[in-house]
Structure formats: C-alpha cells, structure tokens
Amino acid sequence: MGDIDVPAPGMDITKPNIARVYDYLLGGRDNFAVDREVAELILRVMPDARQAPRSNRGFLRRAVRHLAGEAGIRQFIDIGSGLPTRGNVHEIAQAIDPKARVVYVDYDPVVVAHTRALLPDDDFTSVILGDLRAPESILDDPTVRGMIDFDQPVALLLLLLLHHINDDDDPPGIVATLRAAVPAGSHLAISHLHNPGSRRPEDAELARIGEEIFQRSYGVGRWRDVDEIVSFFGDWDLIPPGLVPTTEWRPDPGDDQIKYLTHYTVLGGVAKKT
Length: 274
Ligand SMILES: C[S@@+](CC[C@H](N)C(=O)[O-])C[C@H]1O[C@@H](n2cnc3c(N)ncnc32)[C@H](O)[C@@H]1O
Description:
By secondary structure, this protein is of the alpha/beta class. The chain has one domain (about 50-200, about 230-270): 3-Layer(aba) Sandwich (Rossmann fold), CATH 3.40.50.150. It has ten helices and eight strands. The chain has helices at about 20-25, 35-45, 50-70, 90-95, 110-120, 135-140, 140-145, 170-180, 200-220, 225-230; strands at about 75-80, 100-105, 125-130, 155-160, 185-195, 235-240, 245, 265-270. Strands 1, 2, 3, 4, 5, 6, 7 and 8 form an eight-stranded mixed sheet that branches. Helix 1 (about 20-25) crosses helix 2 (about 35-45), helix 2 (about 35-45) runs antiparallel to helix 9 (about 200-220) and helix 3 (about 50-70) runs parallel beside helix 4 (about 90-95). The mean pLDDT is about 95. It binds S-adenosylmethionine. The site of S-adenosylmethionine (SAM) has 21 residues, from helix 1 and helix 3.
C-alpha cells in the first residue's frame, strides 16, 4: 500500500475495500486500482464527493475535542475507525489529556494491522479486530475490558459506519446494545449518509445512486433519513446543534461553510446519556 503499491500478505486487491476507497477520497495513498475505480464512479455522480469525508473528519475533530474537553470524557471506543489519517481520535483526545484512553475497532484486518503499526507504544491507545454486527463481542473483548472502565462515562464513536450496516442486520438493535453497556454521562457520536427524501429531491436521487454503487461494490449501503438516524440515539439527549450537516456542527471560526453539492450528504450529531 501507499508509496510502494505492493499489497500486504493476505490482502485482497481484486475487490474494492471500504476503508481504502474512503482513504482515496480523503487524498490518501493507501489504496489500489480497484478502490480508485469505485471512488471515480462516485466522483462521476458527485464531482465534489471528496468534500463529504473531509467534512466528516472535521466533525470528528470538533466532536472529540468537545468530548475530551468540555464533556470531560476520558475513554473512547471508535468503531469502524478506518485507516489512520491526519487527526486521529487518540491524537485529539490525548492532546487534551495524555491519559485519555482510546480503543479503535475495525472489522478489516488490514486496517487493524496498519493502525497497530502507527499507534504509540503505550497503555492508552489500542486497536482490536471487531465487527459492529456482533456488538457483544466488542464489549466483551479482553482489550476493551482492560482499557475501558464501564462504570465511568465512555464516548462511543460510530462515524460514517452505520450506513455500512444493512437493515437486515438490525442496526437499531446493535446501537441499543452499545448504549445499554455504558453509564450515565456517556456520549454517542454518529455521522451517517443521509437521504433527505422529498424535502430535497436532487439529494435523494444522489442517495439512491450512491446506495446502488455501494451495494454493487460492497454488498452493503444504506442512506437513511433524519428520523432513522436520530432514532440511533434512543432516549439520549442530542446536544446542540442536534443532528446537522457535519460542517454545521460547532464549526470553528474560519471553517469552510460553502454549501457543496454534498453538503447534506453526511449528517452528524452527539448525544449524552442522562
Ligand atoms: C468510511 S470509513 C470511516 C472511518 C472513520 N470512522 C471516519 O469517520 O473517518 C468506514 C470504516 O468502517 C469499517 N467497517 C465497515 N463495516 C464494519 C463493521 N460491520 N464492523 C466494524 N467496522 C466496519 C470499514 O472497514 C472502514 O474502515
């Protein structure tokens, strides 16, 4: 991967890979021709599609900064963490408190190996192989149990992940299991691909085409409407500004506020368990 463009042992480069397509859209070099083909297909339909992952990473940065800062959270579980890029969760949280603990979880062994290779060698950051569709196995994982104190508030991060879970896999049930495992004061951050339906027909058409490309490429893909996305937070309280396009979630002064074609493609929000 990257500079040398040689696959690691066991890596399948005949099929597009979610993490590598995302990496390509973010301008990374950890991707292969098969991934770039899917990304280019997406870019043909949405010429500014690179903006959606970038806005999502901005949301991640500001949400984690809020969680580690104002909200005082010291433990993070980032599921579907993806290939490391600039501004990873542990870097943001540990800039606020070097002892903040972060466990990354991804179901892709290559993502896990890559993340492990880049992690600091200490007791505060770790990565495990885990599938969101089996949430108990993540919660019961010995590394998770060793690093996370489930009697103290936890930040659960599900960023650009739930659209990879088809309805048959019961995503509301999965997220409810995670919510039930953590105590009051915990937070849940979600960003999700959005289908605005009849409110914005052009964006709904993009969502339909996007879903089609994802289903064909990966066998998963679901753009959800606002009610479906909000329901993932259950009875937790969405903190202001609620569920909004990711660029509108507590932007920093000077942040880009141009309404790109993909402005409404990714919504993000953070909720607190009371
Ligand atoms: C679009 S990337 C998002 C990366 C990062 N969370 C972000 O917001 O920048 C989605 C990641 O979720 C992972 N993923 C997809 N389905 C998963 C599942 N069922 N369980 C765990 N990880 C999954 C993929 O391997 C990929 O790394």
